[in-house]
Amino acid sequence: MHWTRWIWVLAFLVPEVLLKARSHQQALEGSLELQLPQQHLRIEWGYHLNQGSAVGFWFPSVQRALGPHGSTLMICLGVLFSAFFVLWAQHRVASTCGHWGLLFLVAGGAGNLVDRLSVGGVIDYWLLQLQGVINTSFYWNLSDLYIDIAIFLLLLAVARGDLDDSDTTDSGDSNELQGEKKQQ
């Protein structure tokens, strides 16, 4: 993937930074609420500092079993895994869908990582509450949405077979080799 595509990460981060700054300001003024009664959906805009990890949401017993530093350990492992995955996949993704998936993954991860390093947790500003068939609520931000989009796009790229398993890092070399094999 050409380095110029990584500039998009900065473009993705600008609205996230603005929304987080606005949510901090809104925390001082009070939260806003949007209730959609027929849809069983309530959205609250505010400021929430999430010091836990996603593993704490999906597998709270695992995080508790790891003790007081379990969240920090899981976050560090998640960051390392994500970084290695992006380094591994950036030369193997052969489609625009996969490239955008990697860009969204880096933008979402960077947005949340900057929060953790600067304020000690992720700044979430949307509280979504669903009632009806599914009764749940969770805090969310634009970086989380970027990560969700990345997962969808990367799974779509894998399902379409757009992941090149070869170890070549320059597509020009592999194209030349394929041309030579066809001529023989």
TrEMBL record:
Signal sequence interval, chain numbering: 1-19
Membrane-traversing stretches: 66-88, 100-118, 138-159
InterPro entries on file: Peptidase_A8
Gene Ontology CC: membrane
Residue numbers spanned by region Disordered: 165-184
GO biological process annotation, one example: proteolysis
Record key words, sorted: Cell membrane, Hydrolase, Membrane, Protease, Signal, Transmembrane, Transmembrane helix
Xref: Pfam families: Peptidase_A8 (PF01252)
GO molecular function, one term: aspartic-type endopeptidase activity
Protein name: Signal peptidase II
Annotated organism of origin: Effrenium voratum
